Amino acid sequence: MATVTRASLKPPKPAFYNDPRVRSVVYQLVAVVVVFGAIAYLVHNTLINLARLGVASGFGFLQRAAGFPISQTAIDYTAADTFARAFVVGFINTVVVAVVGIVLATIIGFTVGIARLSRNWLVSRFATFYVETVRNIPVLLQLLLVYAILIHVLPQARESLTFMSFALLNTGGLYVPRPLPQPGFGVVATVTVAVVVAIPLVLGAVRRHRVRTGKGVPASLVVIGLLLLIPIAYLVMGRPLALDLPQMGKFRPSGGTVLQPEFVALTLGLSIYTASYIAEIVRSGILAVSKGQWEAAGSLGLSRTRTLRLIVIPQAMRVVIPPLTNQYLNLTKNSSLAVAIGYPDFFNVAGTINNQTGQAVEVVAITMAVYLLLSLVTSVFMNWYNARIALVER
């Protein structure tokens, strides 16, 4: 009788061209070659067509003089500056709108989302009306509406509204003091940055100490003490910051810096629109928390407000963060609608540069890269925060 061994029970080894692992590698290599070949063909064909039309290719145009002004800039800029600096100005304008818009939309969205769950009938219905109305009107129409209201409601330059001699408001925008750093201001700025970085680190250490020992540390006093370092450094350095106050001239205000109606309309419009979606995200996150959490907090004598702030919302954030990230990305990308009301954001400036140079391929590539960078930075930060507040299994 023949002896059956373990080796004889193994199935025969397939030929290399039938091996699933080999086939998967081959298929992937073929896919990569096809994709890169298609890209190379498109690039080669584009360069040939550009040369045939007499259009120069490359990014050398970035060092040429832009030749056009930008109405609102956060850094010094003139028409004699380069196209590269114009891109930087537009990029900063977009980042400012995105950051301010995200902050305002988050505040409004959380407020409205919580209000929708209020026991007060009027507050709840008003929040519902806001969400259902704003969400169903195109954001572009809302931007145009807010801009039209600002233009027609604000007074003319000669009739500017004055606020405590520090600010002027008219159809040209909101004129506010412009800071003028003096020698020694760098020290104050360094202290400010150090305090901002130290506060979350200190709060984290206090929280870990409380969990480990059960003894609380007055974190509010620690934070106040850190914040006091900023005015102390300011006084020690001899107040190294002057203010250029806006003043009413014969025909128009002069001095200071101006927040133009286009910036205000774009920021408010995007914030109000995005907040309607954030409100629903927050409401769904709160409803996702088990009702037993409310009952347990009530049995401990906690008020509804403290229960919401200390127990429910921290748990709801684990549900809220992923869709909230999408809304932040949408707000940043929707800022490109600024072209409709004349705000010089990155997309608007890029369009002007394209018209000036005819370098459509390069300008579009830069624009795509910038918006991709903004989206990736936002996603990375939100993913980091989401991982930080995630439940840790023991």
What keyword list fits this structure?
394 residues; alpha+beta; four-stranded antiparallel β-sheet; 12 helices
Concise account of the structure shown:
By secondary structure, the chain is α+β, with helices and mostly antiparallel strands. It contains twelve helices and eight strands.
Structure description:
The structure is a single chain. It contains twelve helices and eight strands. By secondary structure, the chain is of the alpha+beta class. It has a four-stranded antiparallel sheet. It starts with 5 loop residues before the first helix and ends in a 5-residue tail after the last helix.
Percentage of residues in strands? 5-15%
SSE order, one letter for each helix or strand: HHHHHEEEEHHEEEEHHHHH
Number of helices: 12
What does the average pLDDT come to? 84
Query: Major sheet: order of its strands?
Result: 1-2-3-8
Reported for the largest beta sheet, the result is: 4 strands, antiparallel
Helicity range: 55-70%
Number of strands: 8
> Low-confidence parts lasting 5 or more residues at pLDDT below 50?
none
Q: What separation lies between the terminal Cα atoms?
A: 57 Å
Structural class: alpha+beta
Q: Radius of gyration from the CA trace? A: 29 Å
Describe the global form.
globular
